[in-house]
Amino acid sequence: MFHRSQRLLLRPPWPEDSAQVFSAIADEGVVRNLARAPWPYSCEDAREFVSRPFDPRFPRFLIARADDSALVGCIGINPEGREIELGYWIARDHWGQGYATEAGSAVIEIARMLGHRRIVASHFLDNPASGAVLRKLGFAPVGRIRPRYSRGRGEQALAAEYALELAGEVESDMRAA
């Protein structure tokens, strides 16, 4: 599955992307904000990530700039218990340029087309920039802050939880038409 937005190309990761993924994510400042990525992040971790089987119900994408194919980060939706969770990371060189919001909008559109009715997300409290991205994407705080394990930190840290209802938006759009 591919998606083209104004500035970005979202595409599946391929095995030949492992070196580029490694160089983009092997930054403790990036990995410490993630729940599932380990620190230190190794070349083997990147090879394993790009070799995972693709599930069309839960796509994950490399985020590349459309003009020069530079790797910006990664984004996707994953099953998390009974929920569908949005996760993403942006390489440090690309922070503050709106790429997470642009890629997030695209993935929300894809999730809606796939029939998902609700998406959840969270951010560690010491990463308020991610919370700002989630709010720009329309996620609302659910009023819960809880400890969440971060493999990158090797410990739990407090995370704020958010949710985005997709089903009501589609149903409202259909009634308005």
TrEMBL record:
<feature type="domain" description="N-acetyltransferase">
    <location>
        <begin position="8"/>
        <end position="165"/>
    </location>
</feature>
<dbReference type="InterPro" id="IPR051531">
    <property type="entry name" value="N-acetyltransferase"/>
</dbReference>
<dbReference type="GO" id="GO:0016747">
    <property type="term" value="F:acyltransferase activity, transferring groups other than amino-acyl groups"/>
</dbReference>
<dbReference type="Pfam" id="PF13302">
    <property type="entry name" value="Acetyltransf_3"/>
</dbReference>
<dbReference type="InterPro" id="IPR016181">
    <property type="entry name" value="Acyl_CoA_acyltransferase"/>
</dbReference>
<dbReference type="InterPro" id="IPR000182">
    <property type="entry name" value="GNAT_dom"/>
</dbReference>
<protein>
    <submittedName>
        <fullName>N-acetyltransferase</fullName>
    </submittedName>
</protein>
<keyword id="KW-0808">Transferase</keyword>
